[in-house]
Predict the structure.
Amino acid sequence: MNNHLDRRIVITGVGLVSPNADNPVDFRRKLLHGISEIQEIDLRYFGKAAAGICTFDETRHRKKKENNRGTRAGCIGVYCAHEALMDAALEISAYDPARIGVYIGLTEHGTVETENEVYNISRYNYDTNYWTHHHNPRTVLNNPAGEITMNLGITGPHYSIGAACAAGNAALIQAAQMIQLGEVDMALAGGISESVGSFGIFASFKAQNALAEAADPRQASRPFDLGRNGIVISEGGCIYVIESMDRALARNAKILGEIVGYAMNSDARDFVLPYGPRQAECMRLALRRAGLRPENVDLINTHATGTRQGDIEECKAIREVFGNSTSTYINNTKSNIGHAMGAAGVLELAGNLPSFEDHLVHPTINIDQLDPECSLPNLVVNSPIDAGAISVILNNSFGMVGINSTLIVGKFEP
């Protein structure tokens, strides 16, 4: 691979919480076995809906008092950051705290806190004396990244990246670029979603006829299936330890993968409707930067969310770029965990990184009848496939207001 980056950038740790696991090992196991733990929730004012809810030890790395003062997104972020450092066998003190960056991708932030506070004061005749003084620091966009820095004593740059559902990929790209520029020596980067607490998000997707429904919530998320009817909204988080190859090798780190190419672009067309030709351009640019041809990609993790047009547009883009490549497998992770918004891309990457070691491609589940317009060569459906070897993973994440991202990660070779 001809890495276009001057300094090779690697992933050495991952920490996550998803609707079916609170660690990478269980997450991978459930993806390979096609296990979904999407459940039905009863959301205030909205009613019942399928959703992905995370269960994890919320006080493992931060006290309950601090969680109560902070946010759900911050709680998820602190947990994932600590778990990533543990996975990387890295003490935070190994780096100058002023030379560590924290970059967190978000689709939205603050809506849950605002809705909760409006509800709380509604019980007191909307008297703002009952409005919490924690509201502003809870709802500023940099909150989840900032909560991580406070918890870990990191004094380098921190900020959130608002890139809709491409935000997780965007955060990893930002981390790679900042290390390249010499602005930081190490980064904690990923994405977080707390959207399952927001009436507004559920109501908006419902108004667009884009909210998934099914008698069994575990079968509600069904990208590429002819009977798909929308998105399953999920919370979650995933954070990576990102380092230069030289620093990682110097400490004998286990390298999970290498960031070898990436691209982002804009549709410049519509607020919500995706556009396949621009997605194809994004994939081509990432491949060109990585010095790769389409046939060099062993696995594509699709963004497909379970909406009719979104799935079809991405499939058109993949056909345009990859043709009928017989060496490229394709899967989708949202079928298992729903759409974790800002955390989607990074959670999906985490679910596929182990393919470098076990050579298995986890399946897209809930496909009873494949939509002919979503038929792709080597789409892995309902059961995992042993690919023999996986060396390159291409990870797509696309978002509202026409933002596209493609991240390419390679199996590390010294």
